[in-house]
Design brief:
- With 336 residues, the chain is of the alpha/beta class.
- Helix content is 38%, strand content 12%.
- The chain has one domain: 3-Layer(aba) Sandwich (Rossmann fold).
- The chain has a seven-stranded mixed beta sheet, with helices on both faces.
- The N and C termini lie far apart (64 Å).
Length: 336
């Protein structure tokens, strides 16, 4: 999904920032180091996910990259940032950005490639915009620079008024435990392979609903599209196209949104993965790996076309003439 997730969540939609000192002291939930390759890579998981969402990716790429997979503060039962004293701003996003910046400094990483999925991709973009001197390249996996209101047609002050005056109060009125469970059920539409869907559903249940709600609301507010003109870090967005698009968009609206985003910066490239669900690194593992390796080399990444075949873990139905029944010998008619 781009920022976060899907149909039942979107159906539910029908503080000033913390002091700088408090933000800087909020640690990441977890950092897992894997691999021994020459290129440093930071992997940021999405909302309600922990670092283990990257395990398969890290195993596949352990010889190419030295990877630091992070769990954001509050995810999977880790310590969240302090609760905002009032509505407004993006204090938890700010805390996460500060913690990611500190990770780069503490580990002595030189211009790492920062890869983020969903909310993690949005934070990767914000990290590059806020600290361009620290980031080498960015890859956003099915993640948006801004939450599209009205299919992306409502922007600026009108967009902010709808988010703060309508959507945020509606979300706050919902029971956090119900939000947590409804969000977990979305796993069925986030990845194509049934066994992986089960794993992700259980992962999503490990994050408190109130934490998910706070991150989700801040994701609505965090509009980075107006800042893309000042983007200095080469950035790739992989946009997944499927039958469950975010924010209630149809395919035409989604393609128009991405075309508009693609034109906002000379340092930004958007590629489409057709017939791919939200967890693109699971649905299209080879294509995702190839795209990230291309970015590392400074090359143009390739998308996935409509004729690319089914996603990982999905068996394509046999073509006409290839089914066992088609190849069975014809039965001779009975004679009396």
């Amino acid at each position: 999904m781009p920022l976060f997730d899907r149909s039942t969540v979107w159906a539910c939609l029908a503080g000033a920032a913390l002091a700088a000192g408090a933000v800087a002291k909020t640690p990441l939930g977890h950092v897992e180091k894997r691999g021994g390759g020459p290129t440093p890579v930071i992997l940021i998981s999405g909302v309600a996910c922990d670092w283990t969402v990257w395990e398969a990716f890290m195993e596949r790429n352990k010889d190419a990259f030295t990877m630091y997979a992070v769990t954001l503060p509050g995810m999977a039962g880790t310590q969240p940032p302090p609760k905002p004293e009032q509505e407004g701003g993006t204090p938890w996003f700010d805390a996460s950005i500060a913690a990611l910046s500190a990770l780069i400094n503490d580990k002595g990483l030189v211009k790492p490639v920062v890869v983020g999925h969903s909310l993690g991709g949005h934070l990767a973009l914000r990290l590059a915009l806020d600290h361009p001197e620290q980031v080498g390249r960015v890859v956003m996996l099915d993640s948006m620079p801004s939450f599209p209101v009205g299919g992306g047609s409502i922007v600026g002050e009108q967009r902010s008024a709808i988010i703060d005056g309508v959507l945020t109060p509606q979300i706050r009125q919902q029971d956090a435990s119900q939000w947590q469970e409804s969000f977990a059920r979305e796993a069925m539409s986030m990845v194509s392979a049934a066994d992986r869907s089960d794993q992700i559903r259980e992962m999503l249940r490990t994050t408190d609903g109130a934490v998910t709600v706070q991150y989700f609301i801040e994701g609505l507010r965090s509009d980075q599209a107006p800042r893309l003109g000042s983007l200095r870090v080469p950035t790739l967005i992989i946009a997944a196209m499927n039958d469950r698009l975010p924010a209630g968009m149809n395919a035409d609206q989604a393609r128009a949104y991405w075309a508009g985003i693609d034109g906002l910066s000379e340092h930004l490239d958007v590629v489409i993965f057709e017939n791919t669900r939200h967890f693109v690194m699971d649905d299209r593992s080879a294509a995702t790996d190839a795209a990230i390796r291309a970015v590392v080399k400074g090359e143009k990444a390739a998308g996935v076309g409509v004729d690319a075949g089914p996603p990982d873990g999905v068996v394509a139905p046999p073509k006409a003439g290839e089914r066992p029944a088609d190849k069975a010998p014809a039965t001779a008619p009975e004679t009396n």
